[in-house]
Each structure stands twice: as structure tokens, then as C-alpha cells.
Amino acid sequence: MQLGFIGTGVMGTAIVLNLLKAGHQVTVFNRTKAHAQKTIDAGAVWANSPEAVAAVSEVTFSMVGFPQDVEETYLGDHGIFKGAAAGSTVVDMTTSTPTLAERLAHIGDEHEIHVLDAPVSGGDIGARDATLTVMVGGDRATFEAIKPIFAVIGKTINYFGTAGMGQHAKMANQIMIAGTMTGLTEMLLYAKKAGLDMDQTLATLAGGGANNWSMNAYGPRILAGDYTPGFFAKHFLKDLRIALDEADKMHLNLPATRLAADLYAAMVAAGKGDMGTQGLITTYNGWED
Amino acid sequence: MQLGFIGTGVMGTAIVLNLLKAGHQVTVFNRTKAHAQKTIDAGAVWANSPEAVAAVSEVTFSMVGFPQDVEETYLGDHGIFKGAAAGSTVVDMTTSTPTLAERLAHIGDEHEIHVLDAPVSGGDIGARDATLTVMVGGDRATFEAIKPIFAVIGKTINYFGTAGMGQHAKMANQIMIAGTMTGLTEMLLYAKKAGLDMDQTLATLAGGGANNWSMNAYGPRILAGDYTPGFFAKHFLKDLRIALDEADKMHLNLPATRLAADLYAAMVAAGKGDMGTQGLITTYNGWED
């Protein structure tokens, strides 16, 4: 199928490579062209704007950074909605606000363009290995039509309901991870200061009620001093801010999530937003003694 | 072997039954005798005090509620140290303070009594199925001598070092769980208010980076309105208080753990300390609308 992809970061590049491998034709755009080179080398075709990508694509995907980037990508002077033909489908895979997802779906309706929100989890490794979890909101018939393409890039494809519900599911995911990341960070700090054998502590906790994905994935990296991003801290902060904004709209108080956002905000303020989320531990006094 | 066991609560009872099944003779004491009946029916022998239990036991185990109960059990007028013979071993399985564990080991040294701290994780189900994780501190030779008995009641038996290190490992475990429980609680609240399908949300998150033991064990119970204790909220609060006290001693600031303790303190203050830890969600505005 003739596909478009806007946003060839680490995740986007890996996804495009899988789409090409499956035999799809993919037209790409990225704000920094150099970062699209890997997909071009693999057979993707470059276009000069989101508008130009959408104009030649039956289905256009986007995975950009922040909600304001999503707005620019869809609603800008050379945005997707300028180029997409009636009857085509656009899919935002950025983790963005449920409110914006609803707005894009509404604009799509006016132009007979099918709009889905489809944020993912699973990180760079999931994107590379096509094991992403995809959380989809929007029109169900559009989802069913697109599902085979999702199956090329992910392992678990879940439809959660109307526009914005994919984003809500992703927010739930991030709220859960806020708990595992803060818990992991403070557990490792305590264990280190108490003089526990760190590898043995990780192995022991993994065998019981404390077990969790973040600990198994990031615990060993932290012990090795590896804070390179699987997932950028600045993006996780953005996600938590969205979750808290949405919680406010729902009149919901989430103190632990708010504290996690505060801790990540301090990390970003300390110039560490380009570290992976596991770098949070470097912002605690006592870790790097 | 001739064993003693003090504290036949839900956990203690299950452990004693496994010890009896393995062919050991077990003498028991519990503050409320009625709660020891199940072990007596299964072949345990009742004694009237910790002192009396220790006097007839080669190895005496204790699993009581709070650190002050541990003090009373070991150091009271009819405590374990009054009855234990030189050369015998005593093992505190209560989750208690590392500081108290060190103190008991020191007193034991003076009387030629071997003392271990050996808190466990795995809850009532782990105790029943003999799949507990046991975290041991104290003299290594004593640990090695006792290890076959631990193997009767647990699956993963870990020696962490000198007296108190078993307790420190357990504190690390509880700090990690503070993160998974607060994250789980706020995730479920958000998901419910956002109108997500709750079962689908749990299943989706379990397939990715948000996966954790607490979510898998307690998520379905919460959705079923089941707040019966696998682990008492009041005991979890006690554990977090100990962790934070120890962190203070180590000059370590653990804000997420402190927030979790505040949330559980509010739960206990609301008269919900006898609920399971998963009952935390009932203290959030918006869950029981």
C-alpha cells in the first residue's frame, strides 16, 4: 500500500523500516532531513512537507515530539490536512493529548478524512522488533481497515473506542510507569546506601511481589551507569503533564503522578531531559557519591 | 527437628503447617490462643509464652506484627531470650527495623544464642504454597545450618549479610512496591474516569513496559471490589515508616516513598488499616462514585 510517515526519529525510523520490509511503499518527511536518511537508504521516498506526504499516501502516519508538533504537522500551512485526499486515512502515533485527538478527528470528519489516534508503547526495541503495543482510538471501521498495517509494526493491537481513547489508554500506561520508575529509583538508592549487594537485590525482588518491567529493563542499566535513552526523560515529563491536565479536567487528584512529574521536571530543569527515564536516579542526592 | 514458632497469624499458621508436613515437631505460642488452634489441630504443641517455646526448641521462629511486638517477644519478662538455651538459634521473620535486628543479634552474642533476621515476601499465598522469598541477615554459618528449614517454607532463600541486612533487603522490596501500588491505584482511577474498558486496559498494560506484579495480582481484585487483605494496609504503612526512618538515618531523601506512606497513613486514619494494600484506591475521591 502507498503509505506516508512523518517523524523519522528513533522510533519512527524503526517503524518505517518494518513497513518497507513488509512491501509497502513509504513516503517520509522529517523536520531534520538528515534523520530520515536511514529510511531513504532503505527505499523510502522523501517529500518536502507533511502536506506533500499526505497528498501521495492512502494512509499517513505521524510520530512527532510534543502536542504542539502534532498541531503543526496536521494544521500547519503545509500540514497533513492540506494534502490528504477525501477518503484517505491519517494516524497520529505521537503520545499527545486526548483533547487534540478529538479535535483532529472532528476536523477530519469535515473533510471526509479518517483520523485515528494510535500511540504505542514498547520503546525503541519494540519498534525495531515489531513488538509494539498499539492503543487505538477513533472510528472502528477505519481501525479494522488499517489493522493489518498495525500488525506489521506491533504485536498487541488494541482498539479502545472513539477518538482520544487511544491517548487515554497511553496515559494510563504512563501513570503506571511513573509508579514503577519512582519506586525503582528510590529502591536502588536505599539498597545502595544500606550496603546491599545490588545484583542480588534486583534478582531477589524480581522473584516476588516487587517484580516489574521497569526494574528488569532499567535496573541493570542503572547499575552499569547507562543512562542513554530508551525513552527520553523530557518526553516522559510531557506525557505526565498531559495525564495530569486530563486528570484536572476529570476532577481527579493524582498525587503520586504529580510528584513523579515534579521529579522529572527537576531532572529536565537540571539539563538532563535527553537522558533516558532511568537517569532520574542521578538527580537524587546520594547516588553519585 | 524440634522447632518453635511464635505468631500464628495468617502467614505464621501457613508456615507452621508446612513445617509440620515436612516432619518437624513444632511448639507454638500466639498472643490470642484461638488463632493457634489450626496449627494445634495439625499437630503443633502449645506453650504458654515465647520463653516456654524457646526453652524446648532448637530453632525458634517469630513472626509478629510491629517492631514493639518483636521487642516484647524477645526481651519481655517471658520473652525468647529468657528461655533460649546457649547454642540454640532464633529467627525473626517479622518485617521489623534493621536497627532492632542488630540489637537482638548483639544480645544473642552475649548469651551464645544465634540470631537471624529473615523477613519474607510473597504474602499469604506464598506462605501456603511454600514459595516465599526469604531475605536473611546475620551470621553466615548460622544461615547455612538453618537453610534446609527455610527451604521447607520458601522458594528463594537469600543471604544478604550481617544482622539487619535481611531487613534492609525487605525495605528495598517494600519501597519498590510503594511505587507499583501508588502507580496502579492512580492508573485505575484515571482509566475509570476516562471511560476506558478496565479489563482491556489491564491486559494491554500487562503486555508492555507498564507490567508489574501488583497490577496483575491486585488489578482484577480491585475491579471486583475485593479489598480483603493479602497484606494489611496497616502493616504496609509500618514497613514504609521503617524504610523512611532508616533512610533518614542514612541521610537519604525518598519523596515518592514518603508520599506513599502519607497516602497509606490517610487510609489507616480513615479506619481502613485492616483492608489489603489494594484498598488504597477507596481513599481516592472519584473511585466510588
How are the SSEs ordered, and which strands pair?
Two copies of one chain form a homodimer.
Chain A: E1 2-6, H1 10-21, E2 25-29, H2 37-41, E3 45-46, H3 50-55, E4 59-62, H4 67-75, H5 80-83, E5 89-92, H6 98-110, E6 114-117, E7 120-121, H7 123-128, E8 132-138, H8 140-153, E9 154-161, H9 165-194, H10 198-206, H11 213-223, H12 233-249, H13 255-272
Parallel strand pairs in A: 1-2, 1-4, 2-3, 4-5, 5-6, 8-9
Antiparallel strand pairs in A: 6-8, 7-8
Helix pairs in contact in A: 9-11, 9-12, 9-13, 10-11, 12-13
Domain 6-phosphogluconate dehydrogenase NADP-binding (chains A, B): 2-161
InterPro entries (chains A, B): 6-PGluconate_DH-like_C_sf (IPR008927), 6PGD_dom2 (IPR013328), 6PGDH_NADP-bd (IPR006115), HIBADH-like_NADP-bd (IPR029154), HIBADH-related (IPR015815), NAD(P)-bd_dom_sf (IPR036291)
Active site (chains A, B): 170
The chain pair forming the largest interface, with residue counts per chain, is: A-B, 71 and 71 residues
Query: What best-fitting shape of chain A do the alpha-carbon axes yield?
Result: globular
Instruction: Kindly report the CATH topology of the largest domain in chain A.
Output: Rossmann fold
Total number of strands of chain A: 9
Per DSSP, what share of the residues of chain A sits in E-state strands of 2 or more residues? Answer: 5-15%
* Annotation field: number of helices of chain A: 13
The H/E string of chain A reads EHEHEHEHHEHEEHEHEHHHHH
| Backbone structural class of chain A | alpha/beta
CATH class of the largest domain in chain A: Alpha Beta
Low-confidence stretches of chain A: none
Largest sheet: number of strands, sense, barrel closure of chain A? 9 strands, mixed
Give the % helix of chain A. 40-55%
Distance between the termini of chain A: 55 Å
Q: What is the CATH homologous superfamily assignment of the largest domain in chain A?
A: NAD(P)-binding Rossmann-like Domain
What's the oligomerization state? homodimer
